[in-house]
Amino acid sequence: MKSVVPSEASQKSFPEPGSGIPEINFRQISEESPVAIYTCDINGMITYYNRAAANLWGRSPELGTERWSGCKKIFFPDGKPVSPEECPVANTLKGDVSAGKQEILIQRPDGSVKNLMVHPKPLQDSSQKITGVHVTLIDISEQQTQHVRQETLSAIVESSDDAIISKDLNSRITSWNSGAERIFGYKESEVLGKSIMLLIPDSRLHDEDLILKNIRNGRRIHHFETIRKTKNGKEIPVSLSISPVKDKQGKIIGASKIARDVSYRWEVEEKQAMLSAIVESSDDAIVSKDLHGNIMSWNFGAEKIFGYTEEEAIGENITLLIPKSRLAEEKTILTKIRNGEKIDHFETVRRHKTGRNIPVSLTVSPIKDQQGNIIGASKVARDISAQVKAKTEIEKHTRNLEIINSVGKSISENLDLQGILQKVTDATTKLAGAAFGAFFYNNVDEEGESFRLFTLSGAPREIFDNMGMPRHTSVFKPTFAGKEVIRVDDIRKDPRYGKNLPNRGMPSGHLSVVSYLAVPVISKSGTVIGGLLFGHPDSGMFKLEHEEMVVNIAAQAAISLDNSRLFEQVKSLSDKKDEFIALASHELKTPLTTIKGYLQVLSKIEKDQMSELFLNKSLYQVDKLNSLVEDLLNMSRVEAGKLEFNLEVFDLREMLLDIAETFIYSTKNHKLFYDFGNVPAIIEGDKQRIEQAITNLMNNAVKYSPGADKVYLNLKVDPQSAVISVRDEGIGLNEEQQRHLFTRFYRAESTKGISGLGLGLYLTREIIDRHHGKISVKSKEGEGSEFLFDLPLKEPVQRAGEAAE
Ligand code: ADP
């Protein structure tokens, strides 16, 4: 340290010599003082400083050369630099009365900072004139640091989410922060001085004794998890950290306690525990794997489904579970997972430890770390064997129902015996899952053989041809005589039939029958129509459900077979009737032609008026009779499929003109209105038959409109067809009548009094059909009818423009 040269003023001794008061050497006192003191002259030049000042500044300024302060860097407490003009010394010299004590910061040459309280005092001469400044500097750095620390601590305590509470050794609360208020619900004023027991539920009272014992022994308690009670009585989980509080002498006077509300953590832990329990108790396999497919976790469900224990599976690659043919799936799954995508209910197949394949439904989701990076995948695999089985079962039942439905429909619509039996045999063989099935028709054939093989399914007929008719054997008899169903899992082992196996007589390698099912088909009258027999080379193939299905169909088949038999009988009667009509009309035709010939000869001979009238009436009646017989003949030709046509190409429009002309001459009570357009309608057909069809419709129009007097005949030529319509304003037909109109011998009730055979429309439709046309009727009872039919044109009609080219 440099030698300090005190100023003249400071060298003065006080009190004055000779004042009687012992003289004090101020300079010496000042020099020894722990308080930093320095003086400046009127110019601010430092004139004196003591050791303490030099220590504080960290340097020793040269007296008489430096001004204001021994430290070069001075700041206001907020860090702003203090310029010489505004420093406390300058202000005091200026006579600034407000320049009292002031806090400043100085930075010492070594960089350290000190907080100073500056006390500048003006030095005045006897005339009160300021001659300099006397400055006391008090180092308040330590206080300041303490203060800041205190403030910081208070702020921390106040802003803490945790409850920070202190208490004395009698458990009385001595401080309480806002975290404590938030957690426990009490305000500071409500709890200060109260016992900490306030927060402890009865069940935990012993906690406090334990805590106090530790505290008294100077021990800290870390993260002690217990339960505390809030103001409204709610118990909450807390984690306590308790430290002893000591006085300056180190004596323990109480404890500070940090209570953290760990409800959330407990909840999370509870949830985790719950999740773990769920995972463990799940029937699904819940597995996690890393992004390379290595198994990281494995639950009990996984063990149950895939057969590997947790120990065996963890660390292995997930491909352990994937059948070779499906290995590519894992690549796709991992790619999706890396892209953050989820795979939902992906139905596939996985492999059991034993190598067995298991159908599973997979849901795979990415697993993310706290930063959201994908680190693996969780996979839930559900064994869907049962569903797959159920689905297959349902599909099987649906298929069976479809078969039953279609067989039921087709046999009920079918009257052909052979057709019905074949359908029934095919369908039941399929439904029973049989390797083959046969229907034995219980009929007596011409040779007196009462069992005749009728239909077969799944096996060539020759096999049964070689087999003969085993009707009297014990295996067949019950079906055809005893009327009972026989269902045997292994007929070879059945003592009832063992000696008479259905295999007997079969070529080797063919149709070995092990499973056997036989169902009789019984008619309504109770007679056995026949039997359905099924075989399979494996045992136990036919179950009760198969038996029930076959029995059901057999019952339906019985009805159809009964119908078919009836139909056969009716048909044969009807065939006989048709034969008779054909014969009778043919036989009638010959004498009629002869009578007409003689009448025509007679008409040429001269005769009186009366004879002329009778002759004409006879000729008219003969023509009518002839046309009736002709209709009958034609009908029997249609039925026999022998109605012949002579095709030629002609203009239908011309024909209609002729028909119209004849009609106008021959019809007295009805007026004809017609429109045939002006385009020819060239068709290919039997001219005579088509004329017959049109005339028939025209005659009906007249015949069935006795109260009306108009008939309309029109032709419309479309590009592809000619459409002819015949309309009347007569009695008309209701819908029911319209439905039956074209059946042979049908005559509407309402037209009873009008003569006819009910064959005209039947033949007309046959003629139109055979010409590839279509006939229809529009009619309203009491208003009239319109019959329309179309015939395809031989040459499509050219439009006016096209024809001109
Ligand atoms: P028919 O006239 O000999 O009885 P059709 O086959 O020509 O035989 O006609 C069958 C039945 O259809 C007739 O008996 C009649 O009841 C009804 N029918 C036919 N044409 C008409 C019509 N234009 N108006 C009302 N009913 C008709």
TrEMBL record:
Keywords: Kinase, Membrane, Phosphoprotein, Transferase, Two-component regulatory system. SMART domains: GAF (SM00065), HATPase_c (SM00387), HisKA (SM00388), PAC (SM00086), PAS (SM00091). Residues 1-21 are annotated as: Disordered. GO terms for cellular component: plasma membrane. Residues 583-795 form the Histidine kinase domain. One of its GO terms (biological process) is regulation of DNA-templated transcription. Its EC number is 2.7.13.3. It holds the Pfam family HisKA. The keyword Membrane applies. It comes from the Bacteria. GO terms for molecular function: histidine phosphotransfer kinase activity; phosphorelay sensor kinase activity. InterPro entries: GAF, GAF-like_dom_sf, HATPase_C_sf, HATPase_dom, His_kinase_dom, HisK_dim/P_dom, HisK_dim/P_sf, PAC. Residues 22-62, 149-218, 271-340 form the PAS domain. It catalyses: ATP + protein L-histidine = ADP + protein N-phospho-L-histidine. Residues 100-152, 220-274, 344-396 form the PAC domain. NCBIfam families: sensory_box. This is histidine kinase. It comes from Salinimicrobium marinum.
